């Protein structure tokens, strides 16, 4: 199983965003660096949910906004490592629609259940596979970290 390492600030921010937009889904991007066994996420960017027809159970990030987020990430030396959204009054598990609309292979998809306005469970899934035809979601372990330095560097400093 791969690991999604997120700073406590990012973890709290995506959960708070879900509470802010309840009863609609929130959405955003996760910025970080690839690691040997997943991603190290050091910041998140809120995005507007352009799904006005069904915002309570669907989300979409406008392509122009996504391009802007990607450009800003590159300026910081980061990559889009994934996306997050909330599931108002629904479990933190991917839906068939989430799967059908996921196209960023190798990225993490984070879902937070927001029950009656309160963030409860947050889960992550890696979109694995080599092509759109063989993509699949694999559960990830979410590891909350204090800083975004690589796990190996943290281990080395702990052994000093």
Structure, described:
The chain is an alpha/beta fold. It contains 4 helices and 7 strands. The chain has helices at residues 8-21, 63-75, 96-100, 151-159; strands at residues 3-7, 27-35, 38-47, 79-88, 108-115, 118-128, 136-145. A 7-stranded mixed β-barrel has the order 1-3-2-4-5-6-7. The longest helix is centred in the first third of the chain and has 14 residues, at 8-21.
Short description:
The protein contains 4 helices and 7 strands. The chain is α/β, with parallel strands linked by helices.
Helices and strands, with pairings:
Layout: E1 3-7, H1 8-21, E2 27-35, E3 38-47, H2 63-75, E4 79-88, H3 96-100, E5 108-115, E6 118-128, E7 136-145, H4 151-159
Parallel strand pairs: 1-3, 1-7, 4-5
Antiparallel strand pairs: 2-3, 2-4, 5-6, 6-7
